[in-house]
Amino acid sequence: MLPRSLGREIDELSSQAVRQGTICDHDLIRQRYNRIAAFIPFFEYAFFIPSGLRKRAVDQLKLRRGDRVLEVGCGTGRNFPLLRDAVGPEGRVYGVDLSEGMLRGHGNCAIAGNGLTSC
């Protein structure tokens, strides 16, 4: 369950976004995703993301062994195992995300000086 204070903050930020239009402040976006990173699996469960959806999406890419893939906005890397399976050991999977919090736990990550994080 989300901590009550985090739930209120998300509600307030959502309301603010509706009042002001799209929020394009990269620092604000990064902070928001850093705070909710640990809850991403819960969101998938709570919003009834169909099982197999990620696999079907990767299949639609028609990747071949040895291909290279860049996932922009890779988040917690939940697609990486499926992408790695598709490109095989000869291929490469790269991911970038604005939020370093989303990438915690991925040992091959690098954080650039501009705040962008890559794995």
Keywords:
four-stranded mixed beta sheet, 5 helices, elongated, disordered C terminus
Number of helices: 5
The major beta sheet can be summarized as: 4 strands, mixed
Q: How many strands appear in the DSSP assignment? A: 4
Can you give the helix content as a percent range?
40-55%
Explain how this protein is built:
The chain is of the alpha+beta class and 119 residues long. It has one domain. The chain has 5 helices and 4 strands; from the N terminus they run H-H-H-H-E-H-E-E-E. A 4-stranded mixed sheet has the order 1-2-4-3. The protein is elongated. The two termini are 29 Å apart.
List the helices and strands and how they pair.
Layout: H1 4-20, H2 26-36, H3 40-46, H4 53-60, E1 68-72, H5 80-87, E2 92-97, E3 110-111, E4 117-118
Parallel strand pairs: 1-2
Antiparallel strand pairs: 2-4, 3-4
Question: Quick recap of the structure?
Answer:
43% of the residues lie in helices and 13% in strands. With 119 residues, it is of the alpha+beta class. The model is unreliable at 111-119 (pLDDT under 50).
